[in-house]
What does this fold into?
Amino acid sequence: MRAIELDHVTKEYHLSPSNSLKATVSSGMARLFGRTTTHAPPFKALDDVSFCVEPGEVVGIIGRNGAGKSTLLKMLAHVTQPTRGKVAIRGSVAPLIEVGAGFVGDLTGRENVYVNAAILGLSRSEISRKMDEIVAFAELEQFIDTPLKRYSSGMAVRLGFAVATSVDADVLIIDEVLAVGDLDFQKKCFDRMEDIIKQKNKTLLIVGHNVRQLERISTRMILLDKGKLVLDDLPARVCNLYFERMSRTSDERAVTENRNLRPLNDSGEIEVTTVEVFSDGASTPTDDVVLHKAMSVRVHFTAHRRIAFPEVIIGFHTNDFVYVGSASSTVRREREQAFEGAQVLQCTLPDMVLRPGIYYVRLVFSDQFHRLIWYGESLRKFRVVADEAIDSAKLPERGLVDLPIAWTFRSPG
It folds into this structure.
């Protein structure tokens, strides 16, 4: 039996220009005298969304801000109801939509645990039984009887997450709770979520903007855009489509704002005019680079003064700025003596090992004293594609690099 079912769900909101008494009276008088009043069409936070979740599945939901993710979770948590369509959930539900909801500053941490856990549906005896575990996980043994208003924001968030994830329910509905606290505590939160998934066999719906984390933890993912369901598929496929759509948006913004080659750091000593990508020895620039073929990056720049013993670093990153590799010109035995005037730099990667997807070129210039002269990211977009010699459907779902491994199978002896 399915844990969650959404059948053609639509949620509309009427965006009235004003809810003031004057506007209400004016609208009422207009109707009274037979005059028509114009209203903006309703805003569809969700638009005809249908999907099912089986027991034990972990479904990650991603999309840009305003895509309808939080509206969907609030509907599943019965915070709001659909305008049209049906929502069915089987089993007990724990909505972790806002970490620390209901916390009161004048109450101690311990008292807030009781209040917050009661909001989430735990009885007082259950809270007392789990109190030591909650306090230990939040790492607040020393401060648990201190008023919450004396906590830092990080301490309050840690306590809220510890309470929220102590709820024992069949279906967990989670909104952005993996992005709490410092990096060490985020890792701890992630480990707890994996423990809930693997050992307790819960059904999870998770919304988040850390797409890489969701890709790792989910069994499948859903991409929403402007209230519509765009794709419901394996995590890698959904993430690839999300990053592709985001890259198109960022590229259009870069063209509009004329910042394609705008550096993040610039001393004024170097001006980069062109960054080009070439695939497999071709003489013309391209947008597509073939997996496990040679790739070259050519940079046209001008050094406005003589720069002795320079260092150049070429690197690649994803649309969400995962830096997947870089190379320095200083590893050569014969280091470049100087840059001055117009220059053309070309570096060649003999085997493109990045997995099919969209990547960007980053570039660094520094001098012999490692002083940063010029630094830019997202300078040139390129796509890695697989040719007919490689069955891209058989490439592993996870990872950014296709390791060039030689396989050998033999019987022992």
